[in-house]
Amino acid sequence: MLNEMQKDILKEYINVFLGQAAKMLSEMANQRVLLSVPEIAIVNLSENSEDTLDPSKLFSHGHIVSSSMKFGHDFSGRALLIFPATKAKLLVDACMGEMSNPDEPSNPAELADTDFDVLKEISNVILNSVIGEFGNLIGTKLDFSLPTVELVFVSENEQQMYLKNNVYMLMLYTNFTLAEAQIDGVVIVALGMDSLNMLLSKVDEIIGTLNE
Amino acid sequence: MNKLFYDLLDKLTLGVLLINDQHEIVLWNEWMASKTQMSSVQVINHKLSEICPRFALPMYKTIIQNAFDSGHGRFISGAVHGSFFNQEALEGSDVSFRQNLQIEVLDSEEKRFVLIQVHDISSQHKKVQQMKHFIKTLETENDEIRQIEEESRLLAQTDPLTGLHNRLSFMSHLSSLVHPIPPEKELTGIVYLDLDAFKSVNDQYGHAVGDAVLQETAHRLKASVRSTDLVCRLGGDEFTLILNAIHSITDLVHIANKIFNSFTAPFQIGTLTLKVNCSFGLSIMPQDGHETKELMEKADLALYRVKKLGKAGFAFYSEKEKVYR
Question: Is 0.90 surpassed by the pTM of this model?
Fold first, then answer.
């Protein structure tokens, strides 16, 4: 679905977008937060796409924290930030300056309402950066809602519950590093065919200017 | 309609304020007035950072400016950022106030405004903190109970005089070795040992010296075997050892010799120098059986043979006539 060149360009742009989010999160958490996207893929369930989806990279079996927001007019879709609930707790504790042991698995039930507020803010910062900058890249104005956060239990059979036919999933495998903890999450940008084409045309345009 | 609109805003149980692109306050509802003790008359047309100095900080200034520039909303969690609009909190007299802020953009007649909704989560936050504290207390208590249980378990399995495993611990270790049966090629040696003429030590020198002899015996037995082997005191002057993962009978004889030779040097108890001898019998799993009772009985029978044939030596159950010295 994505050739190597397109992948490289997108990865580079997204890492720049996330750099701004990381700066804001660092200020918020009062410590250095690093964000990177080492891997991206486009996944479509209705086709046999080349980039096969490894569900374990998307949803771990059990509780996950999902945060989502809708965006756009011409370029529209839904953006989700997903990570395992046990890791979410680490992220919240680090932001609140309450150190928890990264090796000690936490119980998803321990996530309190105020923890969800913190996750909402983190998601807000990250999704704003990614989606906002996609808008700038494509040259269109994007309006979007504040994210909503939910804790969902995903059984092994239901791991693809978010993935619907005819929707293309731009998967940004995201790595957070803060307070000596590594937290893997994934930003999913769900796009319709038209929106995906808009994005890829822009990427191809950038590749064209590079080749001139 | 205008009055109804303002009345409605004043009835809301959340704070609502609106600022223009100069960051000046243009709307301030009653909730805001009651929390800050500043009426709308006092704040309208004043810059947000004058009324709430936290918005003069670069982080919050940037958040507001970003909203104006990009049009993107921003959520600020009170759990991380604390309180923005609260008299006690602003004066620093109470840090328990927490407010979530929802920042969104409103465009009207080519003018952009930023709407800030303030949700007070102080009581919710307090409850969460109390709950977290409660969970922590429970966890600490649980840890303490576990520690006490572990100490009690160890105490119940330890001989107080020598610090060795006691009969209970020995039997449970032996059973766990027997079930499941260990690998075919590995042998386990069971040693049944007692001191020769220990009664006369007690009679002649008293129980304090007898106890010191038992403690020194425990020390010598432990020093003569590997840390993976188990040394126990069954009671009186009776000791048992479990020698694990032995590869051959020759190895077992070597260890048995080491145990026996550890009694060669006399015992120094205070000013007393005593010669203490021991006798012991050995049974071997699997060749002498797999059952705990059977292995103990066979080691005891071998010990009986040593005693009958002159003490101060050791014998294997399987070698019917032989005593090592």
Answer: no
